[in-house]
Amino acid sequence: MLVFILRRLAQAVFVMLTVAFIAFMLFQYVGDPVTNILGQDATPEERARMRSDLGLDQPFFVQFARFVGNAVQGEFGLSLRQGRKVSALIIERLPATLELSLVAAVLALVLGIPMGVYAALRRGSFFSHVLMTISLLGVSLPTFLIGILLILVFSVTLGWLPSFGRGETVALGPWTTGLLTLDGWKHLILPAVTLAIFQLTLIMRLVRAEMLEVLRTDYIKFARARGLTDRAVYFGHALKNTLVPVITITGLQLGSLIAFAIITETVFQWPGMGLLFIQAVTFADIPVMAAYLCLIALIFVLINLAVDLLYFAVDPRLRISGARGH
Length: 326
Known about the structure:
By secondary structure, this protein is an all-alpha fold. Helix content is about 75%, strand content about 0%. The protein has helices spanning about 1-30, 35-40, 45-55, 60-70, 85-120, 125-140, 145-155, 180-215, 220-225, 230-260, 260-265, 275-280, 285-315, 315-325; strands at about 170, 175. It has a two-stranded antiparallel sheet. The chain is globular and about 85 Å long. The N and C termini lie close together (about 10 Å).
């Protein structure tokens, strides 16, 4: 296990250095930070002084090493659009994105796994066909269209839920949350459902497909021959083995929820990192773009490591093969 963790950590460091290099290249080839800060009317002396202050007159590898060192400390400089520290902007917007993504992930798991199991065990029933039809629509429809339709129905037509913003929040130190207020929950429902629908249908279809595959295996037939009840066969044997690929997809999709909540946050004007990134792209705010890229890469790396470790808890065959390998 220790060797496995160390190997994964080495791979994670390599991935993060690669992403840091790509983010660093944004500073080199996307716009001129000196011009963005001083404007077009700056004198050559002012431009030279600013380049020296920013360290842009130093060799390439020296600049990259300084960039990596600052990134490890969470420092990416000042936002060119807002004039504030990028780290402060990220800390300010991160709670909203994590809150939205985690609620969407819980919805996708709590609803997707039981629906997938039902669709597999009752695959010939009418309700199972209804679920598969809904899942096909959920996979096919783009996220922004789902969000607009939900706003049209529940905000414009029925007037039940708000269509934008985060609502009332409560500050817990530097962290802010809307989960402790009724208004916060009202504002969270539509964007969370919008973000969860694609993941929910994906998990449901995956669980159904894996469950049907597992139910055809020999050890399930042997379990039935031993006289085990359907409940023991389905949930004690089949579902547990079905969860191995589901964990992989769920872990990766959690990272995707955080990384690609951009569309949902834009549709609902949710004040998270996705909306901040869209605004940064619009104004060519390179420090914010670089910080977002590195942070998302770090989230994916950590989730992948957690998923790999969960394999050992779910699938005992991996522990046995690992012990034999050693």
